[in-house]
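## retry 2 of 3
previous attempt timed out at serialization; input unchanged, resubmitting
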Amino acid sequence: MIHPDTAVRFVSEEIGHGVVATAFIPRGTVTWVRDRLDREFSPAEVAAFDAAHREILDRYSFRNAGGHYVFCWDHTRFMNHSYRPTCLPTAHGVEVAVRDVEEGEELTNDYGCFNIVEPFTPHGETDPLGRAEVAPDDLVRHAGVWDAEVEAALRFFSAVRQPLAALIDPGTLELLNGVAAGRTTLRSVAENFFPDIRSGSPL
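## retry succeeded, writing output
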C-alpha cells in the first residue's frame, strides 16, 4: 500500500501520469508497504495471458528475486523512474523516502532496482552514478549506493510520522526502529536481484 498523502496526477505530455505528494512527506518515511492485495504472477502465469494483459503486467509490475511479477493494486504502479529518486526499495518489503518530498512533488523510483527485462535510456536526465542507461543488472552493480541512502534516511524513521506503520509486520517494524537507533542494519537490496539469463545478467 502506498502512502496515503499521494495521488495520481498528470505530469507532462512526455511522461504522462505519475504519483505526487498531496502533503509534505519527510525523509525517512515509509512510502510503500507490500500488502496482501498485491498480486504475484509466475512467468508461466504471465505467459498464459493474452497479449493485452501481458503488456499491462510488463508495464505496471516489477519482478522480485524469484522472477515473479508483482502487480500492485494501488497507484504505486504509476510511480515513474528517476536517476535521482525520492524513494528507494529495501529487501524487507517496504520503500523509504530518501529525501524530503514537498507537497506537489512527484514520488519516483530508480527502475534499476526492479529487475527490468530490457535496458532503457531515460530522456533528459544525467545519472550521478554515471549510467548511460537503466540496465537489468543495476541491482548488483549499485546496491551499495542505494543501501547507504536508505540507511541514512532511516535514521529519521522514529522521529517522523509513519502512516503505514500498522501495515508493516512486527519484525520489520522492530528492525526499522533498530536502524533508526543505530543498533542494526538492513539486509542489502541486492537480495531482490533476479539473475535472468534473458536480461543479459552476468550472474
